[in-house]
Structure formats: structure tokens, C-alpha cells
Design goal:
It catalyses: DNA(n) + a 2'-deoxyribonucleoside 5'-triphosphate = DNA(n+1) + diphosphate. The chain is of the alpha+beta class and 878 residues long. It contains 36 helices and 14 strands. It is globular, with a radius of gyration of 30 Å. The structure holds 2'-deoxycytidine-5'-triphosphate and magnesium ion (2 copies). 2'-deoxycytidine-5'-triphosphate (DCP) binds next to helix 3, strand 1 and helix 6. The chain binds a DNA duplex (12 and 16 nucleotides) through helix 2, helix 3, helix 4, helix 14 and helix 17.
DNA sequence: ATCCTCCCCTAC
DNA sequence: TAAGGTAGGGGAGGAT
């Protein structure tokens, strides 16, 4: 059995200096400047890292299994082809209080007790249903939860067991032929059982099928799951919630509206803390209330897209298909706990940044991806933060800023790592953040492409590697199939040039960000496309932890002006003693009178001038631009060519206008006021037009939030048409159309001829070797076993699924031919291509070829038309 | 108009 | 000892 995680942690830091006073946070060995292995240990202990990185592990597992099956994962994990079905059967299945259940399974004496899974007195990740009766919830601190539930027991995490059970349930899901699986999270998935449950030969109806799946989960994992069954993801998901714990609920199409009308808007997926606050203030609490609002009203208040979505959800319109894993658009890592550096610890800070960059580069490399941009996200302590010391090691009140930089593509591990480091150092330099303000770092690689150059760990190129996104091309491909599978390999340029070039020129100067070397290491044609656009945004963001849709957790929060730029009083309003004689109509007299005279004066002045532009705003913009951006920019340049520098200067965007206040900020301000602090000093007040401030104050006093909060009316009064609002239904059909469009009927995709099992095995090796760096920490011996089981089950399932599809498509085709819907015939043949792609199963090939012949003959016979449908697999014997 | 960057929100 | 990650959707506003 695995050792307890606390012992693991202890052994990990056994080599560290031990505290002289036990339990003293002055000697806490965990923070970043006291633990040389901080990044590794932190991720190993972080539950959010565990659940956040689940998808990446799942993806790697599926790819590995597909490799062993010698099938293209794109076809194995294809989207459920049921979008055209009049009535789908979607299941949402979710483990009951997952982490807590696992704890009970590991220690049955905990059964029926109030337990919470957390680190000591820390944030609760999951708690038993017994504890929930007392109001205990995920996201609370155990200390606070114990006030609600004095008997609450804290139990530690055990990630390897979560991982093992997670793999178990997914293996099990994949053991049902014809069931499509979409992974949602470590304990939760959608299943499309339309075909399986409706199949006449299958005696099991939907309820029985789901019941049997759930029984199997209990039997094989010892933990319970709940499930919802409905005609859409939305309904299935909502039904799961109602069914919990350890139950299942089916909502039939005719009862859907009736069912959702019993719910509140905050029950809708996608409606979180902020949106639901917003809704409350507008006067929307329930689904029927939401449905009564017009589309344009919702779009005005919540934005074009979210408005449309809310409009649809209120009517239970949701045709999102159960989808396979989609390729990620970004890969990144972030740490904002335990980050402490003293002023004299530059080297430790560099090491931390380097470790984070290595981590991200490894994650990118291990899946064979490449990006064109990196994004740096910095947590900076607010000047008045109460979390100065080492007591809790949280980041405390912070401002967050993020910046994006271009990087060359392709990019090997070392180059990427350095690009990430350099970008980070550059942001630090330009914002003049001090070590002791540094509270967290996020690094991301974005605009990902898959299947570019891959390198093994010796730096030598791995030749002949197939594009990884061929795994995903069912849903993602833009180029025609032929291009996706053929063209890419040949297009790949020799990696060594890039590699050595960047190493040789890059290692000399640590302070230079990659931007300055781009021209040297990037192929010409790419250089032209690159923009060195660096923009500053120093809008403060108050980071708050919150419970599920609950009020933000208090964090000793005070909103204070950002002091990155020395505040010389430039923001302070002139202290003119003005008159308060006339208060304009509609203004709150009490509020107005409470304002300092200087504000009152300026307010009146503004009102007289009918000025909507803000002097405060203008002032601020100017100040930021001159004091922040310009001088630092100059100071950070060491080796930039003057041409590059000029370009960067020229392209720096102008200071942004202050954004609309958010729900979070509003709540913070109100909290400040309630604590008796000077609200007018709040950052959000000092940088906004006075008029807006007064509106805010009025809202504060009235406990509502109306005026400044609702989105500003569009200038024209009419929603712009530029980005057409697309509902789920439209989006899905569009997406499907886009996919189908890329498939050419006449040219069969290349099949077995380009499948080189040696090559793929070699790649698999690399993937696993690299992947181990991230997966290893949760792995037990059992995981391998279950991976094997998954493999064998899926092998069987794959065959069944394939033959099922032949029959499915055959039925549709014959019907289409009868109705002389030849376009439909073509569509369905495209569908066939989709399923067939990359498949290594001989029986399937023969079946498809036979079917195609059959279709051709049938069309000729019935309509005298020659459809010219070449066999998909010319090489397969019939 | 459309693209891009930065930010906010959401889910687990 | 309180191990606050990961990824995507989408909006606002400046750049092009
Ligand atoms: N804020 C959160 C939410 C969830 N999790 C982890 C612990 C949960 O066990 C797991 C699954 O999340 P769920 O939302 O499914 O919650 P539970 O499974 O714990 O409870 P439920 O029975 O409501 O599904 O993810 C977490 O660490 N922190
Ligand atoms: Mg759950
Ligand atoms: Mg869940």
C-alpha cells in the first residue's frame, strides 16, 4: 500500500533543515525559498493540481491505449454521431463526494461520520453527506466548517487512490459497446447511450443500463456514483444533482420544462457566484423568471453569447454533443501558494522560475505540441497585505497581471524553457516587482499546434513521427484529410538547425527575452507574421477564494491603489473647497453630502459641463504611460536591435480605459464600507469617473447594484452583427459542417500504408517517458493493471462499435437512396470516412468496402446514377 | 469590421 | 499548520 501522503511529504523534505521549534511557521520548510524542490513538492500535494491536470493524464492514457490498439484515436474516440437523432439519451454520471468516499473505502470506520478531506485545517475539497447536513461545503476552511459541525473529522488526501478509481470507472465506461464517453473530470463523465439503449437487440433500457453501470462502479471501486439521464447534457447534469447521493434520475423529454422550472438560475451550469448575484439584482431567481426575459434583454445585460446561452438554457435547449477529448488550446502551470522570496534571494527566485518553465516545457513536449505565444501571469502582493510573513503561506490580497509574448515555432524543450524564463524575467523587470512582493507565477504556452517537431531527450529529432493532431482530426481538422496525414511530415524542417542556433545564440545573455533573438532563430516567413506586441495592463484584480456560488471568502482584503507606480498624489483630487448648494435631480442627497467637498465640487462641475469623460481617468492614463511604461522599457533593453526596440515602442498600446466594475469588485467595496473603512480610497473609486463613483455609492447605500453594473448600452442601441450570436444548436451544426466539409469524398484517406508501428512504438515510448514526469506522482502499480484492462476492454469495444457503425450507417444510406437524397448519401459516406480513418481493424475495412460497393450498386439500380464511391481501403481484400 | 490582448468568470 | 491548478468561453476596448 501507498504510504500516507504526509509521510511522503515528510520524507521529501527530510534533508531540509528541521525546525528548531516544532510547529513554528518561522521555520516552516515549505515555502519556495526554503525548499529547493518546491515546485515538485507543491504540485505533489496540491489537490487542485491533481484535479486540474486530470484531463491531460486522461488524454495521454487514451492516446497510449489507442496506440496499442493500432487505431487512430480520432476514430476510436469519435464524437457521438447522434446529433441528428431526434431524441438523444445522455447520461451524466458523477461519483458521490468522491474524495470523501475514497477515504471511507480506505478506512471503513469513517463510514456515516462527518468527514472532510483537507490538509489539516485547510480548505475542504470534499466532505461526506453527513457533514453537508451541517452546511459544510467544499471550499470552506476546516476551521470554519468545524463551527458548523463540531464533530467534523479532517482526513488527508490520497491522490493515488483517486487516480486508480478514476481509471477504473473510465475503463468501465469504455466497456459498453456503442456508448460514447466524454471525460469531464476525475469523477465525472457524460455518456451518450442513444444507440445502445434504443437498440432493439439490447434488452436493457436506459434506466437499466445506467443502473448496471452504477452497480458495477460500486462493486469494482467500493464507491457510489449518481447519474442523471435526459435528452441533453444540461438535463442529465441537472438530474444528477437531484439524484445524489447514490441515486439516479431520468427526466423524459416531455417533462423537461416542468423539471427545470423547479430550479433556480444558480443551478444552471455556467451561472456562478458573479452571474447569480447579477441575476438577483436584476430580479431573476428562478428559471421561469429567466425565461420571461427577452433575448435582447439578456444579451444587453450578460453579453451577446452568454445572453443567448441563458436564453437557450432557460428553454432546455442544448444540443451540445457528447464529444471526444479535444486538443488543448493551451498548456500551462501556475503556483501561487507558498511563494516567498526575500530581497536577497534573487538566485532562489531564478531557480523557481526556471523550475516552473521546465515544468511547462516538459508538459508541452510530452504531448508533442508547440505554441506560438507564451503568457506570463504574475501575482503581486498588495502593499497593505496582511500576509507578509510565513504564517499561512497563501498569496493574500494580490494584483494579477498577465502579458503575452511571441515565441518561435517550432521550439525544442530547451528553447521553450528559456523563452518562458526570459519572458517572466522581462515582466518582472518591467513592472519592477520586488522579490518580497512576488506571490505567484503562471506560465502558459498558447496557440498550440500538435505534431510539429518532437525531440527525444538527447536532443536528436525523432523522425517520422505522425502528427498527434491526427488523433483529433475528427473534430479539429481544418485542412483536408490528405494534407493532415501526408503533408505534415515532409514539411517538418530539420530540427537541429533550430536547436543549435538557439542554443548558441541564446545562452550568452540571460536577461534578453526571446523576442530579441527571434529574427535569428525563426524562419523568415514566420518572422514576417510575428508581432512584438507587448501591452501593459495594471488593472488590479482582487483574488478571492469563494465557495460554490457563495460569498467571497474574506482574506484580510483591503482594496488599495496599486503602488507599482509611485503615487505622488497625482490621483488625488484637487482640494478645492466648493459649493454644495445644488444637488442635481436623481442624486442621492445623503450620499452626496457624505462626499468630501472637493468631490462634490468636481461632481457639480462635471455635471454642469455634461462631461462624460473622466478627468481622473485621463490623468491616470497619462501617468501610467509615462511613469511606468516608458522608463522601464528603456532600462530593460540590453541587446535589442534599435529596429526591434522601435517597433516594440511603437506598438505598445495606449493605456486602456478603465473597465466596467465587476461584481467581485463591487462586493469588495461594500465589504470595505461595512467594515467602516474609507470607501473613497478604494482603487475602484480613485480611477473611475466621479459620476460613476457616485452611482456606485448610491448602489452601496441601497444595497443594490444597477447603474454602472449593467453593460453599457451599445452605441447604436442595436447589438452589432459582427460576431453573430450562435446558440448551442447552431454552433454544433456549424462545427459538424466544418468538419465534414474538410473531407473529400473522392480521395480516400491514406490508411495502413502510412502506419508504421515501429515509429509509433518509438513515439509512444517518448510520450510515456516524458509523460511519466507528470503522471508518475499519482501512479500505483494498479494503475498499470487498469490501463491494461482498459486496453483489452476497449479493444473488444472498438470492434463492436465499429461493426455497429457499419450497420448504423448502412441503414441511413439505404433510406437515403430510397428517398433519392443523394446529398445525404454523400454526407453519410463522409461519416464513414470519419469512422474509418486510421483504423487498423481488418474486418471493419472489409465491411466498409463492401458497404460502399453495395451503396454504389443500390444507387445505380434504383436511380441509374453512378456515385463514384471508391473503396475506402483499396488494399483490403474482399 | 476584425484581430489581438488582457481580463473576468466558471467548473472540477 | 490554510498545498489558492488548469483550461476554456467570452467580453471590452485598443490596434489594424
Ligand atoms: N472546490 C473543489 C471541488 C471539488 N474538488 C475535488 C474533490 C471532489 O471530491 C472532486 C469531485 O468534485 P465534485 O464536484 O464531483 O464533488 P464531490 O464528488 O466531492 O461531491 P458530489 O457528491 O456533490 O459530487 O473534486 C476539490 O478539490 N475542490
Ligand atoms: Mg462528485
Ligand atoms: Mg464531479
Amino acid at each position: 500500500m501507498q504510504p500516507d501522503h504526509r509521510q511522503l511529504s515528510a520524507s521529501n523534505r527530510a534533508h531540509l533543515p528541521q525546525p528548531t521549534q516544532p510547529n513554528s511557521f518561522w521555520n516552516d520548510p515549505r515555502p519556495s525559498n526554503r525548499n529547493p524542490n518546491f515546485v515538485r513538492d507543491y504540485f505533489q500535494s496540491s489537490r487542485l493540481h491533481f484535479i486540474g491536470s486530470f484531463r491531460a493524464r486522461y488524454e495521454a492514457m487514451m492516446v497510449a491505449v489507442a496506440k496499442r490498439l493500432k487505431v487512430n484515436p480520432g476514430s476510436l474516440i469519435s464524437a457521438a454521431p447522434t446529433s441528428s437523432c431526434a431524441e438523444r439519451l445522455i447520461v451524466h454520471i458523477d461519483m458521490d463526494c468522491f474524495f470523501a468516499s475514497v477515504a471511507v473505502k480506505r478506512d471503513p470506520s469513517l463510514r456515516a461520520k462527518c468527514i472532510a478531506v483537507c490538509h489539516g485545517g485547510g480548505e475542504i475539497s470534499s466532505c461526506s453527506y453527513e457533514a453537508r447536513k451541517f452546511g459544510v461545503r467544499a471550499g470552506m476552511f476546516a476551521k470554519d466548517a468545524r463551527k458548523l459541525c463540531p464533530n467534523l473529522l479532517s482526513v488527508p488526501y490520497h491522490f493515488p487512490t483517486y487516480e486508480q478509481i478514476s481509471i477504473q470507472i473510465y475503463a468501465l465506461f469504455h466497456d459498453y459497446p456503442g456508448v460514447f464517453v466524454e471525460a469531464v473530470s476525475v469523477d465525472e463523465a457524460y455518456l451518450d447511450i442513444t444507440d445502445t439503449a434504443k437498440d432493439a437487440t439490447s434488452q436493457a433500457g436506459a434506466d437499466d443500463l445506467v443502473q448496471s453501470i452504477r452497480s458495477r462502479i460500486v462493486r469494482e471501486t467500493g464507491c457510489t456514483a449518481s447519474a442523471g439521464i435526459g435528452p441533453s447534457k444540461l438535463i442529465a447534469r441537472l438530474a444528477t444533482k437531484a439524484a445524489k447521493p447514490n441515486g439516479q434520475l431520468r427526466v423524459r423529454p416531455e417533462n423537461v420544462i416542468e423539471y427545470i422550472d423547479t430550479l433556480k438560475v444558480s443551478d444552471l451550469p455556467g451561472v456562478g457566484w458573479s452571474t447569480s448575484k447579477k441575476m438577483t439584482q436584476i430580479g431573476i431567481e428562478t428559471i421561469p423568471q429567466l425565461r420571461r426575459k427577452s433575448l435582447s434583454f439578456l444579451q444587453t445585460n450578460f453579453g451577446e453569447r452568454q445572453g443567448q446561452t441563458l436564453h437557450d438554457l432557460a428553454r432546455a435547449i442544448d444540443s451540445r454533443p457528447v464529444e471526444p477529448l479535444k486538443p488543448r488550446k493551451s498548456i500551462g502551470a501556475e503556483a501561487s501558494w507558498g511563494i516567498r522570496f526575500e530581497e536577497n534571494e534573487d538566485d532562489k527566485l531564478s531557480n523557481f522560475i526556471s523550475d516552473m518553465a521546465s515544468e511547462v516545457a516538459s508538459r508541452v513536449e510530452s504531448v508533442g505540441a508547440s505554441g506560438s505565444k507564451v503568457c506570463v501571469k504574475l501575482y503581486r502582493r498588495k502593499p497593505n497585505s496582511s500576509m507578509l510573513g510565513y504564517k499561512f503561506l497563501g498569496h493574500g490580497p494580490c494584483t494579477i497581471l498577465s502579458r503575452m509574448y511571441n515565441i518561435p515555432r517550432p521550439c525544442d524543450w530547451a528553447t521553450l524553457r528559456k523563452a518562458l524564463c526570459d519572458s517572466c524575467l522581462r515582466v518582472i523587470k518591467e513592472t519592477r516587482i520586488r522579490n518580497d512582493e512576488f506571490r505567484g507565477l503562471g506560465l502558459q504556452v498558447v496557440d498550440l499546434k500538435f505534431g510539429e517537431l518532437r525531440f527525444d531527450h538527447s536532443g536528436a529529432p525523432v523522425k517520422g513521427v505522425k502528427r498527434i493532431d491526427s488523433f483529433f482530426n475528427v473534430s479539429n481538422r481544418r485542412a483536408p484529410a490528405s494534407q493532415a496525414t501526408h503533408g505534415q511530415l515532409r514539411k517538418t524542417s530539420p530540427p537541429n538547425d533550430v536547436d543549435t542556433a538557439s542554443k548558441a545564440k541564446g545562452s550568452s545573455d540571460r536577461d534578453e527575452v526571446l523576442l530579441e533573438k527571434e529574427d535569428e532563430i525563426t524562419p523568415k516567413e514566420d518572422v514576417r507574421k510575428q508581432k512584438k506586441n507587448v501591452s501593459v495592463n495594471d488593472k488590479d484584480t482582487e483574488i478571492e477564494k469563494r465557495h460554490d456560488k457563495a460569498q467571497p471568502e474574506e482574506d484580510g482584503v483591503e482594496i488599495v491603489a496599486d503602488n507599482r507606480i509611485p503615487n505622488n498624489g497625482a490621483d488625488k483630487l484637487p482640494d478645492n473647497h466648493g459649493l454644495t448648494s445644488k444637488i442635481p435631480f436623481g442624486w442621492d442627497t445623503a450620499v452626496f453630502k457624505a462626499l468630501p467637498e472637493s468631490l462634490q465640487a468636481e461632481l457639480l462641475q462635471n455635471n454642469r459641463n455634461q462631461t462624460t469623460t473622466s478627468r481622473a481617468n485621463t490623468r491616470r492614463a497619462t501617468r501610467d504611460e509615462t511613469k511606468s511604461a516608458a522608463p522601464t522599457r528603456g532600462a530593460s533593453k540590453k541587446r535589442a536591435s534599435s529596429r526591434t526596440r522601435q517597433r516594440n515602442v511603437a506598438r505598445r498600446p495606449r493605456r486602456r480605459q478603465r473597465a466596467q466594475i465587476t461584481m467581485t469588485q463591487f462586493a469588495d467595496i461594500r465589504e470595505l464600507r461595512d467594515k467602516g473603512n474609507d470607501v473613497l480610497d478604494a482603487e475602484e473609486f480613485r480611477c473611475r469617473p466621479l459620476k460613476e463613483c457616485v452611482e456606485l455609492l448610491q448602489d452601496l447605500n441601497h444595497g443594490r447594484r444597477n447603474s454602472a453594473f449593467v453593460n453599457r448600452q451599445r452605441r447604436s442601441g442595436v447589438p452589432t452583427e459582427k460576431r453573430k450570436s450562435v446558440s448551442f444548436a447552431e454552433a454544433n451544426s456549424n462545427r459538424l459542417a466544418a468538419v465534414e466539409e474538410t473531407l473529400e469524398i473522392p480521395s480516400p484517406p491514406c490508411m495502413s500504408s502510412d502506419y508504421d508501428s515501429d515509429e509509433n512504438n518509438r513515439m509512444l515510448h517518448v510520450v510515456e517517458k516524458a509523460g511519466v514526469e507528470h503522471t508518475q506522482i499519482y501512479a500505483t502499480e494498479d494503475v498499470t493493471d487498469f490501463s491494461d484492462k482498459l486496453y483489452s476492454w476497449m479493444r473488444r469495444t472498438a470492434v463492436d462499435v465499429k461493426s455497429g457503425h457499419v450497420e448504423l450507417v448502412r441503414g441511413r444510406l439505404m433510406e437515403c437512396i430510397r428517398l433519392k437524397q443523394l446529398d445525404e448519401v454523400c454526407e453519410n459516406v463522409r461519416l464513414l470516412h470519419r469512422f474509418a480513418e486510421g483504423d487498423g481493424l481488418e474486418g471493419w475495412r472489409v465491411g466498409v468496402n463492401a458497404l460502399l460497393r453495395e451503396i454504389g450498386e443500390e444507387t445505380r439500380r434504383q436511380h441509374g446514377l453512378d456515385l463514384k464511391l471508391p473503396p475506402l481501403f483499396p488494399s483490403a481484400s474482399v
